[in-house]
Amino acid sequence: MIRVLVVDDEALIRTGFQRILDAADGIEVVGAVSGGQALRTVRETRPDVVLLDIRMPDVDGLTVLSDIRRLPEPPVVAMLTTFDMDEYVETALRSGAAGFLLKDTDPEALPPAVQSLARGGTVLSPKVTRTVVDGYLNAGAQERPAKALERLTEREREVLVLIAEGLSNTDIAARLHLSTGTVKDHVSAILTKLEVSGRVQAALLAQQAGLLAEGTG
Question: Record keywords: Transcription included (predicted)?
Fold first, then answer.
């Protein structure tokens, strides 16, 4: 059973997400709270996944994210955002966010997204990706993404495509018929070669470079 905590300042959003997730097999919503209650509720309920509003009036979502990530065994955190919140993405990425979901995400897509997060995958709503990729990567990258990808081996490019599709190391290992340890080594090499600090940044770079359109060849 995947334990989920929903954190949002709007009761309507909290209730909607809770109803959708509670109706899904294998998912239990252990709390739906505002930002000021988030950290205490995480400690009390020990969720596997937290869906966290990136900006709330009572407490900054990015501050909550940082506080959660400092816990001894922090849950996976994905940020809930609206279409115009891309200015906060870089900070969220560097603070350890595992993905971004629009608040108007298709209800049918929400349970699979939570399941992917619980398995260690990344989640990037397509609209969010298109909005943030230029502003985040173009502002920070020293070279074009396609140039950066030239550093990768063919196998590493295959692994990067699957990272960008949101697969966890275990899922990638099964897809490519590799051991999980080998996949971990590939992921580490990819992050080093691309000079990014996490899977979400690598996924965004792959998106911008058009690697998903190419597939694994």
Answer: yes
